[in-house]
Amino acid sequence: MDVFDVIVVGAGPAGEVAAGRVAASGLSTVIVENELAGGECSYWACMPSKALLRPVDLAGEVGRVTGLRLGGPIDAAAVLARRDAVVSHYDDAGQARWLDSAGVTLVRGTGRLAGPRRVEVTTADGGTRTLVANHAVLLATGSRPVIPPVAGLAAARPWTNREVTGVRAVPDRIVVIGGGVVACEMAQAMRGLGAREVTMLVRGGELLGRTEPFAGEMVARSLADQGIDIRMHESAEKVERPEPGGEVTVRLASGGTVTADEILVAAGRRAATDDLGLASVGLPESGPIEVDESMRASGVADGWLYAIGDVNGLALLTHMGKYQARVAADVVAARARGEADDRPGMRDRADRAGAPQVVFTDPQVCAVGRTEAQARAEGFDVRVVEYDMEQVAGGYLLGDGYRGKAKAVVDERRRVLLGVTFVAPGAAELLHAATIAVTSEATLDDLWHAVPAYPTVSEVWLRLLEAYGL
């Protein structure tokens, strides 16, 4: 048996941040990973997807400015080469070196709980290594894509986020199942990089259903203008692919078929807790791991087990997993030293306030906090203010085709923001100001004195406050 102060299972962004922070406090730390150190975000999600979307976004930007013209179609081969560089050609040597420099021991293999403070690792050669923690085990195994139980779908070997972000040749025709973030982003990327036919099958009646309704509507209009066929209230009833890698036929629930070269499933994700050995410590064997505000797993005696990132189901976002990792790591270090573990930074507030998120379509969708519907459902005294962002001088200067909308959800009793949504090209950089306002619960009267520079799109803050009546 190998004994360490802290064991981290999963070397994605959350796991790496937690391990590095714990090791920096002086605790001996080991991290277990069965794929690439750096995890989903680095190789198959956030980073490669944004590398694919950036030229599409920039092409849209150029097209909105008078006097500029895009010189022909996007060079897909060059974009894919740049994507390969962004993901380090799927080589995690750099991440492994960083872990070593941070004082973290990397063990390659599949980790599984085998009782209190004990992790059994199955290595690639079939061997077994047992790790024991003096203080804590942190689970950071992330999430996996959901494949709906559609006849023939799994057998057709559909693409998930991994295959589409790692695409070697852009398909001529692609069917996308889903209407969420991955579906919208990758439908736009494939179309922009040269796919002739992109068809989206959306079970519900809107895109991006967890955002304000106008966000999905604006993205749907943009995707349609780019030639993407969006079919609302439509779903796949059966999928047929007679030859591996050959043509795919999707039979629709409403009747008719769609034929394509590839099919992308973007129908959500689930916590990667299967075969994690949770039953050995008295927890349900599947589903998200319930945690308290310090990221400790609920129902585990002595509080030695923690769950951070997607695996706890709070917010399936890389930045939130890293935030939770910082919270948990500081709690673990304090408890190991016998110090108080209740300082303000050791409790999760951000998930309760509402995690910030950006959808990197064109236009971008940026939101933090509660939507209007969520705020009303929770019983707040809500007032809503909206503003068309093209009326801001900074927005007008970005091009004749610039369109955007901002919405603020206000708690009338306290006069603070419960949620903010921006939908506009390049709006992502506006989000952190909104995140600060929502998380800190700054009053509208205080925000009135935060003067935005002219002429920038951030003047939308002033316009929202004026629309409220300040």
Say what the CATH topology of the largest domain is: FAD/NAD(P)-binding domain
Give the strand content.
15-25%
Shape: globular
By DSSP (H or I, 4+ residues per run), the number of helices equals 15
> What is the distance, rounded to the nearest whole angstrom, between the alpha carbons of the first and last residues?
65 Å
CATH architecture of the largest domain: 3-Layer(bba) Sandwich
Helix content: 25-40%
Overall CATH class of the largest domain: Alpha Beta
Keywords: FAD, Flavoprotein, NAD, Oxidoreductase
InterPro entries: Class-I_Pyr_Nuc-Dis_Oxidored, FAD/NAD-bd_sf, FAD/NAD-binding_dom, FAD/NAD-linked_Rdtase_dimer_sf, Pyr_nuc-diS_OxRdtase, Pyr_nucl-diS_OxRdtase_dimer
Cofactor: FAD
Domain Pyridine nucleotide-disulphide oxidoreductase dimerisation: 356-461
Description:
The chain is α/β, with parallel strands linked by helices. It has three domains: 2-38 and 92-144 and 270-350, FAD/NAD(P)-binding domain; 154-267, FAD/NAD(P)-binding domain, CATH 3.50.50.60; 363-468, FAD/NAD-linked reductase, C-terminal dimerisation domain (Enolase-like, domain 1). Helices cover 30% and strands 24% of the residues. It has 15 helices and 21 strands. It has helices at residues 13-24, 39-44, 46-63, 76-86, 93-101, 161-165, 181-192, 213-225, 318-336, 350-353, 372-377, 393-396, 431-440, 444-447, 460-468, and strands at residues 2-9, 29-33, 104-108, 110-113, 118-122, 128-139, 143-145, 173-177, 197-202, 229-232, 236-240, 248-252, 257-260, 262-265, 269-271, 305-307, 357-359, 364-369, 382-388, 405-411, 416-424. The strands form five sheets. Strands 1, 2, 3, 4, 5, 6 and 16 form a seven-stranded mixed beta sheet that branches. A hairpin with a 7-residue loop joins β11 (236-240) and β12 (248-252). α1 packs parallel to α9 and α3 (46-63) runs antiparallel to α4 (76-86). The mean pLDDT is 96.
